[in-house]
Amino acid sequence: MARLDGLSAFPITPSDAGGRVDIAALRRLVGRLREGGVDSIGLLGSTGTYAYLSRAERRRALDAALDEARGTPLLVGIGALRTDEAVRLAEDAKAAGAAAGLLAAVSYTPLTEDEVFAHFRAVAGSGLPLCIYDNPGTTHFHFTPSLVGRLSRVPGIVAAKSPAPDAAAVPAHLAALRAAVPEGFSLGYSGDWNVTEALLAGADGWFSVVAGLFPRTGAAIVAAARHGDAEEARRLDARLGPLWDLFRAHSSLRVIYACADLLGLCRAEPPLPILPLPPEMRGRVAEVLERLGLD
Predict the structure, then answer these.
(1) 257 part of the active site
(2) 50, 52, 108, 161: which one is catalytic?
(3) Scanning 23, 150, 155, 284, which has the fewest C-beta atoms within 10 Å of its C-beta?
């Protein structure tokens, strides 16, 4: 299995009001990522609104994306409320040819660490390599370094995706995770506006929303960090400040949907009850896009 290092780009999953995936639009987005040279594609992540799609639509999206990716590894979201459903989604992804599954601790009732451990161990039994998805803003469950360490020793669990803390907290957070997991276990971060400092601190990868639409923009930051050019990485990150401000104020999901529409890449809106940005904010997004000239 390919390591989940470097730049993993997370596109939206365009679909209609009934939850049917627009395959042609999805293929355009995935092709853009392949041509942009990303290290992997994070299909059906939170930006890909996996929780709003049926099992059948997830499989349609996966089959189309795998075909369009042409060998670029696909990390696919397999989160579900029930363990047996997550297992079935993992089996679907393995059968289709996904490189790995991205599994969050999705739940309505708050989970204990032992419950999360049992859930992940059961899904890992599918044979699909798994990446731990720590997304406490959505799941309200936080993975401690201790739990990540326990899970990292379950056969088939190979990586973790954590929300990047503020710059000052990144080194300690990454060090705590490194101390808990075996050598070779991949540790990456999401939360685009904080990730540059995580990469400079030694994180293995960036699970990126912005790269899901602008892969070369994300790749430039990753390349600078890999080459130890902190000044250039920070310069590129600072240039994106107006976009990061929009992400924080309105959610990266809503902003990226607006960007895709404004660029003419697809005409989809986020699934209800999520509403698209109002016209005045779309105008602000358009201004930022024009100013930045993102690629």
Answers:
(1) no
(2) 161
(3) 155
